Amino acid sequence: MEQQNAGSQSIETISASADQQQQQFQLTIDDATTPVTYSTTVRVWGSAEEINLDFAGPLRPTGPSAGRLKIDQRLILNPWAAKRLALALNQAVARYEQAYGVLELDARKRMINPPSGNR
Known about the structure:
Layout: E1 2-6, E2 9-18, E3 21-30, E4 41-46, E5 51-56, E6 60-63, E7 66-68, E8 71-77, H1 79-100, H2 107-112
Antiparallel strand pairs: 1-2, 2-3, 4-5, 5-8, 6-7
């Protein structure tokens, strides 16, 4: 996939194999008015028909063993779109780790061994 940016529009050329033939499709993407939400937490749930992603900010403690999580955005995908998203995220994380080092998910280990990437 190639991408060119022109202001708030980008043009992507998508290559796909269909019936043993390589096809290209040019897609113009306009994200000028797209709202942006920053998320530190995602909850994944769903059914046989859909996969739901709930995005939230930080967990806010409400007591010694309780907290509040405010869902800022919900994304509902069909299973095929969810699988394509999972593959794309895996590729993006692999590229990130190749450039900056392995991402440690355990926060306690991150504090003991800070990242040594090129930041």
